[in-house]
Amino acid sequence: MRRLQVFDDLESLGRAAADGLAAQIREAVAARGRCAFGLTGGRTPRRMYELLAERHREAIPWGRVDLFWGDERYVPHDHPQSNYRMAKVSLLDRVSVPSANVHPMPTDPPEPSTAARGYEDLLRGYFRGRPAAFDVLLLGLAANGHVASLFPHQPVLRERTRWVVAVDVPADPPRRLTITYPLINLAHQVAFLVAGSTKAEAVQRALRADGEVDEAPAAGVAPDPGDVTWWLDRQAAALVSPEKGGV
Ligand code: 6PG
Fold first, then answer.
1. Which of 44, 66, 21 is nearest to 194 (CA)?
2. Which residues contact 43 (CB under 8 A, 6 or more apart)?
């Protein structure tokens, strides 16, 4: 199922998305004992992560939440462009999540492909003996339509078996690790968090039924039987109609 939730601004969007994600995390723990929560990078989630910590520091059983990343720039974890660093500063340092539950994508092997294989091995080991699926997977959307580090017209869009691959993308920094559609589409709950007028066309392309993934990689995010919730501010939702499921 797909649903759109639209809010006036980043602050009200952040509060609502934080509350919605907290409910989904608690539901996963109640149903399956733990929650595998995939985090996104970029700028948009920063305030929502802060609100998730402020509003749900006690209500979420952080000891039962295992944190992973959907993509990472191939820079040290203390680098200003690190997705791990952004989540650490805005969320991890503000809640009592055990360090053993936090699984950043490794960026120290000389070859990113080695790091990608290592992270995939970690994920496959984590899910061994039970259905592989993120309970909650948070994704952003870029103005050019990329999601995680699945960029338009990239070979990774055709990946059908690997869960984590190293990519070279037309962005700074170019070397990245990303999860792929095979893993994304196993998720129970996918949440897009998108704000700002620069994203409106990308949102429209992603939600159009005939979304061609080469132009709109987010259109390839179609978990089944999982659900997708689009958390949008008014500017990002300007070209879609929530009452009609987005198109
Ligand atoms: C990254 C993200 C990427 C991000 C979009 C949106 O590493 O950059 O994982 O997929 O979600 O680029 O980024 P903003 O939130 O900064 O617009």
1. 44
2. none
- pLDDT average, residue stretch 137-152: 98
Task: Give me ligand 1 centre to Cα 112, in Å.
Answer: 19
User: Helix axis angle, 83-90 relative to 45-56, nearest 10°?
Assistant: 30
Q: One-letter amino acid identity for 230?
A: W
CATH code for residues 2-244: 3.40.50.1360
How far apart are the CA of 80 and the centre of ligand 1, in A?
14
Residue 146 contacts residue 127 (beta carbons within 8 Å): no
CB of 41 closer than 6 angstroms to any ligand 1 atom: yes
**Contact of 66 with 126, CB cutoff 8 Å:** yes
pLDDT, tens digit, 9 for 90 and up, residues 218-229: 999 999 999 999
